[in-house]
Amino acid sequence: MSRLRRYLRRFRPYVHAVRPAMAPQMDELHRALADLRRLIADQGDAASEATATLGQVLARLTAAVDDLRDELAGLRVQVEGRGVDDQG
């Protein structure tokens, strides 16, 4: 391992020279990554809201269908009760 460290030490002056030159690009990259994180979080929030809204709509629809079934069952009882007497 010490051999590798000695070899890499040769590049230290270059790293120190490159870092200042890379600073503007790194700042821009950090800003872009922050924007991406914010967009992804916003997308997640929007998906959660859409899912919640869809759940509410489906719950109302289920309740409406249940009400219609109850009404239909009541009408069926009325029709079946009259059917025999009204035919003849």
Secondary-structure element sequence? HH
Helical percentage = over 70%
Q: Total helix count?
A: 2
Number of domains: 1
How large is the radius of gyration? Answer: 36 Å
Q: Percent of residues in beta strands?
A: under 5%
**What average pLDDT do the residues reach?**
90
Specify the structural class: mainly alpha
Query: In angstroms, what separates the terminal alpha carbons?
Result: 106 Å
Quick structural summary:
The protein has 88 residues and is mostly helical. It contains 2 helices and no strands.
What does this structure look like?
- The chain has one domain.
- The chain is mainly α and 88 residues long.
- Helix content is 95%, strand content 0%.
- It contains 2 helices and no strands.
- The mean pLDDT is 90.
- The chain has helices at residues 2-9, 12-87.
Describe the secondary-structure layout.
Elements: H1 2-9, H2 12-87
Feature tags:
single chain; 88 residues; mainly alpha; 2 helices; 0% strand; rod-shaped
